[in-house]
Amino acid sequence: MRLTRSLIPTLKETPAEAQIASHRLMLRAGLVRQTAAGIYAWLPAGLRVLRNIGQVVREEQDAIGCQEVLMPTLQPADLWRQSGRYDAYGPEMLRVKDRHERDLLYGPTNEEMITDLLRQSVKSYRELPQMLYHIQWKFRDEVRPRFGVMRGREFLMKDAYSFDLDYAGAVLSYRRMMLAYMRTFQRLGVKAIPMVADTGPIGGDLSHEFIILAPTGESGVFFDAGFEEIDWLAADFDASKPEDLERFFTQMTSLYAATDEKHDAAAWAKVPADRRREGRGIEVGHIFYFGRKYSEPMGLTVAGPDGAQIIPEMGSYGIGVSRLVGAVIEASHDEAGIIWPDSIAPFRAAILNLKQGDATTGAICETLYAKLGANALYDDRDERAGVKFNDADLMGHPWQIVVGPRGAANGKVELKRRAGGERVELSVEDALARVLGA
Ligand code: 5CA
Fold first, then answer.
1. pTM over 0.90
2. Nearest CA to ligand 1 atom 23
3. Domains of the chain, start order
């Protein structure tokens, strides 16, 4: 995109309403604008990040055989009356009536709806197991929406649901999803650590929160250094093999990790001192096994091999896709601005024309822009170099290709890596190769 033709309204001043870095930077870099308390419009650059995160999440869900669907945002209240949650949910649920006075609600999550869909379509044990997900907007009327998209009222979630014939099957689905999550977060360029969470009324030991390390996080965390060392993408775990899932789960749960609420001093003392890590974190995912909590009251059954009815065992698995935009920024920024991981940056590179109107720099910039296409944001504004440098740092593109008149006269550009700040002078071809190769 050409910056002069784009709606990327960067701000020099820090907006007064923003208390934490990611909220400030998302407003200053022109990613989002608030339209009502806890509700945001995604502007072009912000939407690209949101989509990129969604795409990584999608690919890793698909890779474990989880099928994508798209359920509506509006749900009939009757479904929630069947599970008993319509009254239980309280004022966080946004309730609306249609013109026929029928009760609807804006979905805060989709357990009831997916259970209803399976109830309509699945009749035999042969049709299970099933895993389904969607990436859809949710609404929760939070009392205190804050920190920008991190605690919004309307927010984008990936929510997945598993249906198995028995507990052993449900455990496999749970572990498979957990492996997909470790891969997903690593691809997003963040360190996420799974921590045992409260399971609520269902009990059991199968609920984990995934916490990204960031100094401004809401919860204190304690964990074994092992979590920083494992490369989940390289690790040899086949998500379709029960023995691999067992090995994966054992390795992961043998490492200590807990939020401050669940911290166990005795277990912590057993972690070798040089492997103890403490920090703060942000919850970006949460997974649950809950057995027959919805299938039973809602009457989801399938015929077993002997004709007897089986009530499926379920789990649900959430990732905060819009929250992740803020959480990644919390984990990856400096005083100058955002430092996007390559995998989710809105643009791979910014092209900075330091002398707008100059024939030589203009020609080089046009060449770069033609080759990079949608990967580049071309800063073609008639602005001082300092303004362009500051905005590029603020927006956090992994690469900046700086085209100044002196280098341009010799066919050279300067390539800057945002993350480490290194700069090198290169030919146009070499700069392109670096940017596209990374
Ligand atoms: N039904 C389950 C799993 S699908 C569920 O709703 N889990 S949840 O409540 O933990 O939400 C899943 C993820 O959504 C959270 O881990 C968090 O990352 C994100 N999330 C929850 N509430 C908000 C919010 N108000 N704003 C932004 N993201 C949120």
1. yes
2. 151
3. 3-338 (3.30.930.10), 349-437 (3.40.50.800)
